[in-house]
Amino acid sequence: MTPELITTLGDELYHAMTTHSVVEPLTTRHPDITIENAYHIQQRMLSRRLQAGERVVGKKIGVTSAAVMNMLGVYQPDFGYLLDGMIYNEGQSIAANTLIQPKAEGEIAFLLKKDLMGPGISNADVLAATECVMPCFEIVDSRIRDWKIKIQDTVADNASCGVFVLGDCAVDPRRIDLSTCGMVMEKNGDIIATGAGAAALGSPVNAVAWLANTLGRLGIGLKAGEIILSGALAAMAPAKAGDNFRMSIGGLGSCSVKFA
Predict the structure, then answer these.
(1) Is 3.40.50.150 the CATH classification of the domain at 3-259?
(2) Is the pTM of the predicted complex or chain greater than 0.90?
């Protein structure tokens, strides 16, 4: 894939995001696209957002749970970048028309107090570098029509990042078993999903260690002060105007979001 085509596809995804439109899957138009190509396209899309004035505030790990893998037909984790324009406050309304085809995921977010630079990062290193963990909604969104994605499509599309909402409870990760803590997610008052920390690669801590080591091999570190979203604990749920979501995680507290 030529540098010119990578630039063109990154610009296309950026335009789709800013105009709330969709594009046809990259993998159907360019069957030879590799995951490495896709990350270069992601970097072009990211650079357009940074040029427009946004700044990186963290990173996300995607496709960590079996439920999401099976739903999307994608069977390996990926990562993307979180930007300050993605942040919503607990309970704040999200205008549904600012997104394209959003879905809500319940996750555990990590706030780092120390840098993590892989490879060689262990779970103990992750816990030592973490200031606190919080319940979190990630509202994933795809610029790819009808979510018809393969791993290359979602990688290129910044791991299908949309926006995210952090809960207002912050807990020391050393005081809770992040593998066994249970999550309950409700939509409009009905329970729609349950899960546990183990859904994210066996533990959200495993997921963050995977990210630090994967990025470290690319010469990229996780920075103190960054927010790391560790992956969905259950299947994602479609969201539209008028929907209200709430999720609670044992020992961590709750998080809520509504769509206007």
Answers:
(1) no
(2) yes
Pairing of strands 103-112, 130-140: antiparallel
Q: How far, in Å, are 64, 93, 102, 178, 252 from residue 159 at the CA level?
A: 12, 23, 13, 23, 25
Closest CA to 16 of 154, 157, 174, 125: 157
Given a contact cutoff of 8 angstroms between Cβ atoms, the answer to whether 82 and 160 are in contact is no
53-75 per-position pLDDT tens digit:
999 999 999 888 777 777 677 77
Tracing tokens 């490879």 back to the chain, one arrives at: 119
Query: Can you spell out the DSSP letters for 23-86?
Result: B--HHHH-TT--HHHHHHHHHHHHHHHHHTT--EEEEEEES-SHHHHHHHT--S-EEEEEEGGG
The C-alpha atoms of residue 64 and residue 121 are separated, in whole angstroms, by 18
User: For 160, left (φ over 0), alpha (ψ -120 to 50), or beta?
Assistant: left
Asked if 24 and 13 touch (Cβ cutoff 8 Å), the reply is no
What Rg do the C-alpha atoms of the chain give, in angstroms? 17
Around Cβ 180, how many Cβ atoms within 10 Å? Answer: 12
